[in-house]
Amino acid sequence: MENNKQDQNFDKFADKFEKNIYGSTKGRLRHELLVHHLHNYISHKSMPLEVLDAGGGTGVMTEVMLGLGHKVTLSDMSSEVLSIAKQKLGENINLDIQHTDILSLSNNKQFDLVVCHAVLEWLQDPLEVIDKLVDLVKPGGHLSLSFFNHDAQLFGNMLYGNFDYVEQGMTTKNIVRLSPNNPQKPKVIVSQLESLPVKIIKQAGIRCFHDYLKQPEKQTSEYEQLKQLEIQYGSTEPYLWLGKYFLIIAQKDG
Length: 254
Fold this sequence. Notes:
Elements: H1 14-22, H2 25-42, E1 50-54, H3 60-67, E2 71-76, H4 79-89, E3 95-99, E4 111-117, H5 126-135, E5 137-148, H6 150-159, H7 163-167, H8 186-194, E6 198-206, H9 218-221, H10 223-233, E7 245-252
Parallel strand pairs: 1-2, 1-4, 2-3, 4-5
Antiparallel strand pairs: 5-7, 6-7
Organism: Paraglaciecola arctica BSs20135
Family: Belongs to the class I-like SAM-binding methyltransferase superfamily. CmoM family.
GO biological process, one term: tRNA modification
């Protein structure tokens, strides 16, 4: 990516994105942990929720929401990833797909649940986008944010011995297109949310242990045991701060 004043767009490599991200234990575990933590807010409701999957890409989370009977608006700025989403999701009366960036979404409609997962780290001004997302939540509704964790990125690179990379501020001239260019510090995002009309009700690390295993083959061979331990410890101190992704669920003031 040209790391200038543009947000990341996946138009030129949507298929690679889908395969690399969700065709691995990294992607599978991240998705399953997010669904686990969101469970209380998306299932067993007496009425379908109106959900916005903002920057929802190929519709992985949208598919879960639709399966639970909710009404979903899936938005993304990449036409190619939305094309994959349309093929995957098919025709559904509960699905509205919008080709747009988050800041261009209309303020005329608010949602019971706004989901924005793995998006902030690709944006030039994520704090402005957070303000917009909160505006799109109905009073009493929920916002779910997850993002690539800058602090965990630094910790991991130190463990891997990438000292020069850390000293350079974890930036290189040769940007890897599928490597987030603007990872976020959890406490900065928490501070931003605390300035807005929401209450944080859940914080969790996503993949607190998976990426650090000295025996990477156990990511596959002992996946279910690893997943249960991620669930057990991922919401507790100090491990939540080590997750490669960080999750925040907030409820808007009623």
